[in-house]
Write a structure and sequence with these properties.
Length: 321
């Protein structure tokens, strides 16, 4: 015997509300329509669905059992409606976000955690990538948001780029590094110590090469390469190695790691870190909600980063010797 799901759902509504009239109001149907459905169900089952003379309506054993199946249908419909409403409001759904590794680990993963305490129904899938990979991910609809650096040129057609922080690189070292005890630093001082190379393909690696070219350094001694942000910090804390890092990343861990800025002025990249998105209007509302959360966090954070930057006593800008 086959039943129509909508008829079972109507039966469940009648049992739950105790009357045909109330069930009609809840389901947005007419009272006669609900009554016809109940009569048709009773004929199909061959048994009464409600005990006679009871108000509010009280189901028979078979009526109660069928209503339980209908309740599952009603609950599924309710959850589906909530999902659609939540998606449109940006409070439900999945956001796929990726970005340059060091920046994601230093800032964005923490901001995602803060965001999900506010929006617990939004699932976030995070990954890593450099600009070329991130652009491909957004263009192919595999990503919703990308955290990446972009230079003076505008974003490619079909993309929307919103800056969140001006890029500034520093030479980083452990807080007990011997060079910090010197009152004057020069180019040759940077050659006397081993270096950590940034991840292959990262903007920092290109910045390191640009630094060497600009200040006329010979080839430096790369002692360690390819590590995550955590491994770079661990290595720096145990050695006298130097590396190039975004100032914001060092700032983010200034209190929980024994890492600091070597106060030498180096050439700065003409770019900003920001959020790259599709320019199409069909983006998930939840993705825009996460992006707005990141914007607000950096509005507050930017002042602190700039204040820390100005508090450092910088030496003369390095150049060819």
């Amino acid at each position: 015997m086959k039943f129509e799901e909508k008829h079972l759902a109507q039966l469940a509504a009648v049992v739950e509300t105790g009357s045909v009239t109330n069930a009609a109001v809840r389901l947005g149907l007419s009272q006669p329509a609900i009554s016809r459905t109940m009569s048709a169900l009773e004929k199909r089952v061959g048994e009464p669905l409600f005990k006679p003379g009871r108000r509010p309506l009280e189901p028979t054993l078979i009526g109660s059992q069928l209503a339980q199946h209908g309740q599952v249908i009603l609950e599924a419909a309710r959850k589906a409606s909530e999902t659609v409403a939540g998606f449109r409001a940006g409070s439900r759904g999945t956001v796929r976000i990726a970005g340059v590794p060091f920046f994601m680990d230093a800032f964005i993963s923490r901001m995602i955690g803060e965001f999900q305490t506010i929006e617990p129904e939004i699932r976030v899938e995070q990954s890593y990538g450099n600009l070329e990979d991130l652009e491909k991910g957004i263009a192919s609809n595999q990503l919703d948001l990308a955290i990446c650096p972009l230079g003076l040129v505008e974003a490619a057609r079909g993309f929307q780029f919103t800056p969140i922080l001006a890029a500034r690189n520093v030479v980083a070292c452990r807080s007990s590094h011997p060079l910090l005890r010197r009152t004057k630093l020069g180019t040759n001082d940077l050659v006397d110590y081993p270096w950590i190379a940034p991840l292959p393909g990262s903007p920092l690696l290109a910045d390191l090469h640009a630094l060497l070219l600009t200040i006329g350094l010979p080839e430096i001694g790369i002692r360690y390469s390819g590590g995550s942000l955590l491994s770079v910090f661990n290595y720096l804390e145990e050695t006298d190695a130097l590396t190039i890092l975004p100032h914001s990343v060092v700032f983010a861990h200034r209190k929980d790691r024994r890492i600091t800025v070597l106060p030498v002025e180096i050439p700065q990249p003409p770019r900003s870190l920001g959020i790259l998105r599709s320019a199409a209007e069909s983006r998930p509302p939840s993705a825009d909600k996460l992006a707005n959360h990141i914007f607000r966090q950096f509005d507050a954070l930017r002042t602190l980063i700039e204040r820390h930057q100005t508090s450092l006593v910088w030496g003369p800008k390095l150049g060819p010797q």
